[in-house]
Design a protein that fits this description.
single chain; Cytochrome Bc1 Complex, Chain D, domain 2; 2 domains; about 425 residues; two-stranded antiparallel ribbon; binds heme C
Length: about 425
């Protein structure tokens, strides 16, 4: 409860025309007759009156305070109603209202997105959902094949309704950004790897194909500037353009605060994304960032507990055998906990912050803008797991490799480690 009130008061953000416009595009999950409500999602100046406003401080389920791993809105017995894996992989929370009715992506897909184009934009295909015979004979240059794959539920993170080979409605699920495949059939086609960041996905490019943006060069320029593996979850709120890397979401059990900036627990952020980014029908309130959206009937909140359970069940993949030098990693661990000062922040089982402690951008030499746009103004110590698996590093991808990470800290913290020690530290990071 207290955290929402006690965190530093956030200056009211300017409400730019761009933000309002973009909101109309991307928050438009309710169809034309409910424009007032969707507007409320960004009208943070307080002129609401559409019935969509509530005092978030009175809503404990959106409290950002630890114990953070308690799912929001959890009520006894609710989790059993939903299958968290199913929600994560396929549930759209009713966001077809955005992706179909507003963005008309069903038309874009049926007209122009053959499987090769889809794979090129980073979409993944779940081979286990496709009968082998179909996979062997599929024409990967025909958009009709994409529609057939969507009908089978095989395009990861895309859920569609198909009748007589025609794509009627389409929406997106969490898996779109937070799942990869193992490429066992070919690049982009294989078994699902839930929780892995899809760093091949170009969400901005995909959005820019919508006819909604056909005559909006400014929006298209922003969307096509993001690139693969990056997304800006605040662009349609504050109109700024500074995308971050899609993070892996495995290994989050025991991590107190979620997002790069530690804005809140898992379900806090899940609700934010489902409602304000995916366009799902639901509610999200946080006066710290001035977001208040209420769309009914809520298809998000009741699913959050099951979704949470599934997310925290996702384990980080182990480093492949022989992928690091064990003796060097052992020496690196001693440096990590000693002279290199890493464990002053990366501590405990998850190597993240203890409790609610966060860091100013200057403490670790990070660019400040992403923190400034968040609810906390600070960065959370990223939990260290499966680092071998998800280069580049830091929220903005500013370190291309683990060597670059160690170099960064060596100069920023004035460690003067020297090359052999730096190499040992890198081996340790590869072992996590
Ligand atoms: C369009 C891509 C996209 C979709 C769809 C998406 N996310 Fe994310 N997710 C991101 C990005 C980008 C971040 C990083 C945001 C930040 O920290 O500022 C993120 C952050 C997270 C985090 C925090 C990870 C951490 O290290 O603390 C979790 C958990 C998460 N997402 C779960 C979900 C769930 C569950 C859904 C579905 C309701 C979802 N995401 C939908 C892109 C996406
Ligand atoms: C003052 C606290 C602090 C210290 C000291 C610190 N870190 Fe970090 N670390 C952070 C924060 C905060 C982030 C998130 C930065 C971002 O993404 O903007 C981070 C991110 C990282 C990441 C990126 C993880 C990812 O998945 O992108 C790695 C790797 C890392 N730190 C390793 C180290 C190592 C190695 C040391 C010691 C040389 C160290 N850290 C020292 C706070 C710290």
């Amino acid at each position: 409860m207290s955290t929402l009130n006690s965190r530093r008061a956030r200056p009211q953000r300017r409400r730019t025309i761009a933000a309002a416009f973009v909101a109309a595009m991307l928050l438009a999950a309710c169809g034309d007759d409910q424009d007032d409500e969707m507007q409320a999602g960004v009208d943070r100046a307080g002129e609401g009156g559409s019935g969509s406003r509530r005092d978030a401080a009175t809503r404990p389920e959106h409290d950002a305070a630890p114990p953070a791993s308690t799912p929001d809105a959890a009520r006894p017995g609710e989790a059993v109603d939903y299958d968290g894996q199913q929600v994560f992989r396929h549930d759209t929370f009713g966001d077809e209202a955005l992706w179909t009715d507003q963005l008309r992506m069903h038309e874009v897909i049926a007209k122009a997105v053959d499987p090769m184009t889809a794979l090129g934009a980073g979409l993944k295909v779940d081979s286990t959902a496709v009968p082998a015979s179909v996979l062997a004979s599929a024409d990967l240059t025909d958009p009709a094949t994409t529609v057939a794959l969507i009908e089978l539920g095989a395009v990861v993170g895309i859920t569609g309704e198909v009748r007589d080979g025609k794509l009627l409605r389409v929406g997106v699920a969490c898996a779109l950004c937070h799942s990869d495949v193992d490429d066992s059939v070919m690049e982009g086609i294989g078994k699902r790897l839930d929780g892995h960041a899809n760093r091949d996905l170009d969400p901005g490019l995909i959005l820019s194909l919508s006819p909604k943006f056909a005559n909006d060069e400014k929006a298209k320029a922003v969307l096509t500037s993001w690139g693969k593996g990056k997304y800006d979850a605040r662009w349609n709120q504050d109109g700024m353009n500074a995308p971050v890397l899609i993070p892996p979401i495995y290994g989050l059990r025991g991590v107190p605060l979620e997002t790069y900036t530690g804005d809140g627990p898992v379900s806090y952020w899940n609700a934010y994304v489902a409602v304000t980014q995916m366009g799902g029908i639901g509610q999200f309130f946080d006066p710290r960032v001035g977001v208040e959206v209420l769309r009914m009937p809520d298809q998000v909140t009741p699913k959050l507990p099951a979704l949470y359970e599934y997310e925290i069940s996702l384990r980080a993949p182990e480093p492949p055998a022989g992928s690091f030098d064990a003796a060097a990693a052992e020496r690196g661990k001693a440096l990590f906990e000693g002279r290199a000062q890493c464990s002053t922040c990366h501590s405990g089982a998850t190597l993240s912050d203890a409790g609610e402690r966060l860091h100013t951008p200057a403490e670790t030499g990070m660019e400040p803008l992403h923190a400034q746009r968040s609810a906390t103004g600070r960065y959370r110590t990223t939990p260290l797991r499966a680092l071998w698996q998800h280069a580049p590093y830091f929220h903005d991808g500013s370190a291309a490799s683990l060597d670059a990470v160690v170099d960064h800290y060596d100069s920023h913290l004035g460690l003067t480690l020297g090359e052999p020690d730096q190499a040992d530290l890198v081996e340790y990071l590869k072992s996590l």
